Each structure stands twice: as structure tokens, then as C-alpha cells.
Amino acid sequence: MKNLRKAFPVLQQYIYLNTAASGPLSEKVFDFRQEHDLDFLVSGCILKEKQGEMLAKIRETVGGFFKCEPNRVALVPNFSYGFNTLLEGIESDKSFLLLEDEYPSISWPITSREFKTYTVSLSATLEEDIENALKNYNPDVFAFSIVQYISGLKLSIDFLKQMKQKFPDTLFIADGTQYCGTEIFNFDDSGLDVLLCSGYKWLNAGYGNGFVLFQEDVPKKIFPKTTGFNSLQGKYKAQEGNFLGKFEPGHQDTLNYGSLMTALKYLNEVNLEVVEEINKKLSVIAKKELTTLGVLDEIVVKRSHHSTIFNIKGDKNLYDHLRNNDILASLKGPGIRVSFHYYNTEEEIQELVKALSEYLKK
């Protein structure tokens, strides 16, 4: 197998267990960014004149990667921008179902608009609890992260598809920022109505880029008000009131969206089947080792499947101990969050276990 670590220079300096906070930049994306700005430097407005063509190619790349037609792919600078734009198109009397301790960029925009909300506690029986809440509350919208940013609890796409079939009148709006890029994903077959994602984590696309995927009937249910020059410009935004165009007012950033396209092409080179296989293996090994050490929450231990994000019991002293051992992680929620991607190794898990064991013996 090719060296999957070579493209990420930071991996030569650290045990990088912090993709859930910020995915490392690859040489491929770095090279694209240099070439793009060199083109801008020497050609000026000529580069801008090619913007529409480039943005169309980026949408096509995103759509091909996630199995969504490009006329249903909107490019946004980040999840929060796209989500707030989306919420502005939802009537104020609609109700929302949320998960407790959800990512603030989901919960805050909803509560700030004073939508009626119901919540589901995180537990080992999360899927059963979600189904009961959908049945009991009959919310207009279920907004959620596919993978929880603190605990790493993961909702399977099969489960979400089943719930959408059982509750077709509820809009399923998902944050894929902690999920997209970790395994094969087919949006059109997912049961999700809308998926939004920032590209700077598991896609390794750097900052300032993200996307919105939506099903064909969504424009009949959500009516964003955002508009501006370029909302009607381009190959996939021909008609007035175009839903995609509501997310793209003004001039768009081809440097950052081009970085997303480059990162997705690189993941295709690596092969997403390989990425998924490695991530599943890392998740199983890490969960087993961390469970043995007794540093995981009981909710995580009891669940049969999990992401590659784990929250370890500990404080800043442990965090500093890990950093002193060149292990990059995050202080997050009740403990220290570590996260593994396909460029991590079993040996690095063992290095983490060794550092934790040394600390726990103090």
C-alpha cells in the first residue's frame, strides 16, 4: 500500500490525533493554493473571468464525490453560513428536534431564532431514543450532527434512512463536518433532506470552504431570503429564485473552493474504500485499548459501533502530558478528545496508550 502519510508533512513532527479540530493540510492542496495565487498575481482579472467555469467544475467534483447532482450542490464558506442561510428560509412556527450537547453551530442558530425545540439525551440507546422522540414530538425538522463533536457518538446512515422512511414529513438536516471524508457516503440514497459540511476537518481541505447538498423537493419546503450579485450567475443558477443561488451571493472564493476540489480529488486517489477500511479498524482498536485503560465514558463503551473520535477522561495536566509527548489532541467537553484518520497508525494508538499509562501511574 502507498505511503498514506507522506502527503502530510505535519505527521513527521507529531502524533496527530486532532483531525476533529483541524485536519492537516496536504502537499497537494498546498501546491494548488500556490499555483492559484500565482495565476492571480500574473493574470489578474483574467483569472476572475474563468470563475464561473471553475465553480461549475468544483460543484461537479463535490457532487460526484458524495453522489449528488451538481445542480443540488451549493458552495459555502463554512457550515455555519450555510445553516443560518437555510434557517432563514424556515417558517418561525416550525418545531425542531435536537440532540443534547449538540455542536453550538447547530443549536445556537435554532434557539436564537426561538424555534420550538425538543431534545434527546445522549445515551447508549441513542437510536431508540431518537425514534421515540420523532414519534412522540412529530417535529418539523430533525437537525443533528452525524458524528457528535465531543463524544464521537455516531449515527449510522442506515438508521437515518430508516427514520426518514418512517417519518417522511420531518425534514432531516445533517451536519457532516465530523463525518464526511471518513467513509463512503451516497447522499441521494441517505434519506437526508439536506447535508451541510465544512471542509477543514476530515476532508483536509483547509479553511474557508464547505458545501450544502439538498434533495430535489427541498426548494418547495424551505425559502431562504439571501440574494446578491452572482445569485443568478453561472451554469447551475440560470433561473430567478434559484435555491442554490441563495447560498452564493456575491463573488466567490476560487482559492478556497478550489482547495476543496483538490482535497476531494486526492481522497479519490487514496480510494475512499481504503479510507473507510482503515478508519473502521482504527476505531475498533482504539476503543478496545481505551476501554481497557478505563478512560472512556460508559455510554461509548456500551455502544456496538463508534466513530474515530474519543473523549478521554482527564484534565489540562493530562493534556499537557500528551503534548509533551508530541501527541496533538484537544481539551473538549469533560475531557481530552483524540481523533484518528486514515493517515494514523496502530503504532500511534500504542504510543497514546503508553503515554496515558505513564500518566495514570503517577
The strand line-up of the biggest sheet is 2-8-7-6-5-3-4
* Order of helix and strand elements from N to C terminus: EHHHEHEHEHEHEEEHHHEHEEEH
CATH architecture of the largest domain: 3-Layer(aba) Sandwich
The CATH topology of the largest domain turns out to be: Aspartate Aminotransferase, domain 2
Proportion in β-strands: 5-15%
**For the record, what CATH class of the largest domain applies?**
Alpha Beta
| Poorly predicted regions | none
Number of domains: 2
Radius of gyration: 21 Å
Question: How would you name the CATH homologous superfamily of the largest domain?
Answer: Type I PLP-dependent aspartate aminotransferase-like (Major domain)
SS-derived structural category: alpha/beta
Number of helical regions: 12
Specify the helix fraction band: 40-55%
Give the total of beta strands: 12
- The span between the termini is 40 Å
Mass-distribution shape: globular
Largest sheet at a glance?
7 strands, mixed
> What is the mean predicted local confidence, pLDDT?
95
Structure in words:
The protein is an alpha/beta fold and 362 residues long. The protein has 2 domains: 9-26 and 273-360, Aspartate Aminotransferase, domain 1 (Alpha-Beta Complex); 29-269, 3-Layer(aba) Sandwich (Aspartate Aminotransferase, domain 2), CATH 3.40.640.10. It is built from 12 helices and 12 strands. The strands form 3 sheets. The protein has a 7-stranded mixed sheet with strand order 2-8-7-6-5-3-4, with helices on both faces. It starts with 14 loop residues before the first strand and ends with a helix. It holds the Pfam family Aminotran_5. Residues 15-352 form the Aminotransferase class V domain. It comes from Gillisia lutea.
